[in-house]
Amino acid sequence: MLDRILIKDLRAKCVIGVWKKERRRKQAVAVSISLSTDLRKAGRSDLLQDAVNYHDLENRVLALIGNSKYYLLETLAEAVAKVCLNDRRVKEVCVRVEKPAASKHAKSIGVEIQRIRK
User: Fold this and answer.
1) What is the pTM of this model?
2) Tell me: the pLDDT tens digits for 14-24?
């Protein structure tokens, strides 16, 4: 079993949605990421170069989200997963993307995907 790095409810704004009114301005999204990796080397050495740098990853994901203009949450989730899997130490990623303003009746609507390095 692999260890996990968790980033929960990363908040950003982007153009997302299929309707004209959704594409006029950026909307809030919340992104949660679970990275499966082996943390033993970093745990023993206490050195950043032995770890997946989640601060850098967070910045790359925020830049992706801020510049994106996807129509579907599914597409945004796939793009975030791809960024995470660019680090060869990440073996698996679970990405949840939620849009808080998507429904009058629900706290949010979202998608969750899981991708495994082949």
Assistant:
1) 0.95
2) 999 999 999 99
